[in-house]
Amino acid sequence: MSTVPIVVTIAGSDSGGGAGIQADIKSMSANGVYAASVITALTAQNTLGVTAIHDVPADFITAQIEALFSDLDVAAVKIGMLSQPAAIDAVAAGLLKWKPTHVVLDPVMVAASGDPLIADEAVELLVARLFPFASLVTPNLHEAARITGEPVAQTDSQIATQAEQILGQGASAVLIKGGHSEGGESRDYLLSSNLERWFEAPRIDTQNTHGTGCSLSSAIASHLAHGRPLEDAVRRAKHWLTGAIRHSDELKIGKGHGPVHHFHQLWERQ
Questions:
Q1: What's the confidence (pLDDT) of residue 83?
Q2: For 67-126, what is each residue's pLDDT tens digit?
Q3: What is the helix (H) or strand (E) element at residue 143, kind and residue range?
Q4: Does 255 fall in a domain?
């Protein structure tokens, strides 16, 4: 019997279940790995927005990391919401100690509702301390702009330029997600030292896109944990997420931006 890969998500909790730790665990489960978690923050959140954030103390983040890595054979790590400098330092220390093979960093900065999720002083520290550990960084267009200090990219050449800048900040690869752009296609740009690819998928008319970034990065981490090459991992994850968005209206969760349907391939159609 084969061993199921273990992936650890280090991120914040979304009480509404659509993003953060909850989306990560669903995405990982749907993509064939065992999910474990390190919770960095608690949010009071639903489909309409974030009403409160409670940060987990850094020493307790460290305790969670120690508990997992000292016992579990971790194949990959996905990192999401780290809202405070102390949390970033704790995670960086854990990565330095345990040296996981694959680290997918989703630099979560703004919720889909527009609510800020990271302190300004934490952005530079996030880049300096965590990018060097990252196998892949997965910013959306707004996050890429904030990281590079540039306006939000409007053209392919501007996206490529910002990807090069992010690559120069220490990450091994970057995937700039184009889900917030205009047009009939959702286009993501992958760049590493030896790889350059555009991934396209049809843009789906739905407001239920809460947690798409968390879900995509978790799916990519899952496929890397299975031993797949980066390009294949991104392609498989994007194909799965496109289906999850396409079927999201079947769930009818909340009054605002609902979640994607993480288990669209598994649940029987009602």
A1: 82
A2: 999 999 999 999 998 988 999 999 999 999 999 999 999 998 865 555 666 777 788 899
A3: helix 141-148
A4: no
Give me the domain span that covers residue 186: 6-250
pLDDT at res. 139: 96
Q: Is residue 91 part of a domain?
A: yes
Asked if the structure places residue 270 within a domain, the reply is no
The tally of domains found in the chain comes to 1
Residue 269 lies in a domain: no
List the CATH number of the domain containing 102. 3.40.1190.20
Alpha carbon of 109 to those of 20, 71, 129, 141, 142: distances in Å? 12, 31, 16, 11, 9
Catalytic residues: 177, 209, 211-214
Total length of the chain: 270
Angle at 123 between CA 114 and CA 107, to 5 degrees: 60
Helix (H) or strand (E) holding 105: strand 103-105
Q: Is residue 149 scored above 60 in pLDDT?
A: yes
